[in-house]
Design brief:
alpha+beta, 2 domains, four-stranded mixed sheet, 4 helices
């Protein structure tokens, strides 16, 4: 599904990152297919972060819809990432249409790797421990 929303997926990214760590806590940043990914989703850039979660709730929604969903952190920029519903800022809860009740299995942010250029860059080290110097 990710292939539809990015320009292309380099074979090394597919083998060394996606096949090894998906589903799971790894977000891979790739060049976006600008015709399919709106500028708002891209944050004004020409790239997009893609991930396959390892959790039944979002996977079920994605399968039922037949297209990906946006899954930002449940916090305002600069705030601590919440891992329980009670930790979410009430102002953010007020702004949402719906919250899916459930629990966090890992309680860590995803690791984010920018693969738009070589060498790849770890933007955020999180749940998945990746040493890119070993695979770049």
């Amino acid at each position: 599904m990710a292939e539809r929303y990015v320009s292309y997926i380099p074979e090394k990214v597919r083998k060394d990152l996606m096949e090894k760590y998906w589903p799971g806590g790894l977000t891979v940043i790739l060049s976006a297919n600008a015709e399919k990914v709106p500028e708002l989703v891209r944050g004004g850039k020409m790239s997009v972060g893609v991930r396959i979660p390892n959790h039944d709730a979002p996977l079920s929604i994605i399968r039922a819809l037949g297209f990906p969903i946006l899954g930002p952190s449940a916090n305002f920029h600069g705030e601590k990432t919440p891992y329980q519903l009670s930790e979410i800022n009430p102002e953010l809860v007020y702004l949402t249409d719906y919250i899916i009740p459930g629990g966090c299995t890992v309680c860590r942010e995803s690791t984010v790797i920018d693969c738009t250029e070589v060498p790849w860059e770890i933007v955020r080290q999180g749940a998945v421990k990746v040493k890119i110097q070993n695979i770049n």
